[in-house]
Amino acid sequence: MRTQQANPARTAWLIVGGLLAAMLLFAGCGSSSSDSSSGNELKKVGKGEGSLDLISWAGYVEPEWTKPFEQKTGCKVSDKIAGTSDEMVSLMRTGEYDGVSASGNATARLFEGGDVDPVNVSLVPNYKTVFSDLKGQPYNTFDGKPYGIPHGRGANLLMWNSDSVKPAPKSWNVTMDPKVAAKYKGKISQYDDPMSIAEAAVYLKAHSPDLGIEDPYELNEEQFEAAVQLLKEQRSLVGEYWSEAEKQISSYASGDIQVGTTWQYQYFLLKGEGKPVAASPASQGFLPEEGATGWSDTWMISSEAAHPNCMYMWMNWIIEPKANAEVAEYFGEAPAQEKACEVTKNPNFCSEYHAEEPAFWKRVYYWKTPLADCGNGSEDCKDYNDWVQAWTSIKG
Amino acid sequence: MSRRLANLFHGRPRLQAGALLAGPVGWLVVGYLGSLALLLVASLWSVNAVSGELVKNLSFENFETLFDEPVYRTIVVRTVVIAALVTLTDAIVAFPIAFYMAKVASSRGKAILVVAVLIPLWSSYLVKVLSWRNMLGGGGLIDWVLEPLGLSGPGYGNTAVWLVMSYLWLPYMILPIFAGLERIPNSLISASEDLGASPFTTFRRVILPLTFPAVVAGSIFTFALTLGDYITPKLVSNNQFIGNVVFNNISNNLPFAAALALVPIVVMIGYLLVARKLGAFEHI
Q: Which pTM was predicted?
């Protein structure tokens, strides 16, 4: 038996009406967004809570230095690896994690969103001997208070396949100059994140001085358009936009990708597997001639941390000389802890990575959040939403 | 107590039906229509770029961006076209398989074929897509097979997305068509032959009209599933589909993601209305 057919127009109107009514209901309620009460720093580190939930970059939380931490503190570490800063921010906003190894393009957003708490550095004894040029920086200090513990720093790499890319590139032009890059059409790998716009800006800063780019994260309309245009031209040459380290490793290993931006983590992993990859020498900070974008990472504590004591112990542990040396050597970055330089396995590690030379880091442009207000009084710089929109239209 | 309850319901069919349906209908209204309404409202808000806090002032700004920026039109068109192509491909591939299963195979063969069609659904979606990623990659299986012919595989891109999606959603097309064909009595086919119709005419005039609603029903699955997927495009192409842009905006611009998420909903409503006209829901 067939049931009587409902009048379709009537059903449709009922649904639309219901939706509208529900919509008005929600709009009317307009939940009063409570301003997150950040600003409560811990007064005293008590007994560990038995576990610790972290968000980190690949290679930052590894058994080598995590196991001893667990044994010492009883805090069982579970780690979630994020591929981009956006991912870190959205994970932190779930409130499910105790802390994050945030780069400079996430820290300000986490602070403004009330997702992180200031750190009482007197409870982190190892903080005293952190390199002073990493303390009190705009990306880890807000309202005059430290909002995290420096972890380490480095530059994003230009990596290439040493069998097929010859001679060894000295400049980003192999990925950024359409004429040079055309040689590697379909074999170029670009980081799938709006921060790539800053990479283009670093290139333009060196090669188009008339644009007057000072800081690759503070771009006015004209400078921004030029960087976006460069990346749009690069689009047809890119073989793969990557954001997961593992995906990129497989592409280099199979030979599908031969040149592009990467991190030390992938570079050393591929080298360890005996794959033919190369980058600018570590002694030059991996830097091509233009300099590079980079990061100075900060361990931040969530304002909703369920295990604050364990998180404080972790923040102290990760800048303990031995642990900080281990993570720095494992990842291939400059440590944040002065004393780490005395205990690295490679005795020359710190000098090779320029850990102790503040002047060297002038050519590494640490990731930061682009803001409309870039310090000249008028709000004429492109903000992060513009960057995200532009990145979408670059990829097309 | 239970007797009183029984008395209450006795002879009141509307109350009976109401009590029975309150749960599912409530779930539908709150969980489904409610979240749709939230999506609609959220799409009218905006967001503070730095703190990520929602600014709850109603405006159509997100929709303006959506219409004004050519890139979003490209992405919507790309997604819809690939979804349509996947649907068409699946219909063409699924029909002969379903026909063999329903009309030709022995009952034992039929059981084996049904299991064979279902088996891919038991393995993880990611495993399947990643296997395709390997096969499509430079020097992968597809290149290796085509090499002796002097050809090379499509590599990563729209073609790869089309191939992988067609593979992934094929069972969802085969099963409804199989069910539709099973319903056609064999006597109708014999009658058509007895009246002198060629096999092609029988197919065109008898089988196809009777199974068309089943094809449309299957196409709803393949079309909707392609429209919403964002993992396959990410793994086997560089191109952005609606789902990718929604995903990219979720963390820092939820309202815009909501506005964009309404696009597939509108497309799907249009599709369902057309499917309804074509009679896809008549046998449900």
A: 0.79
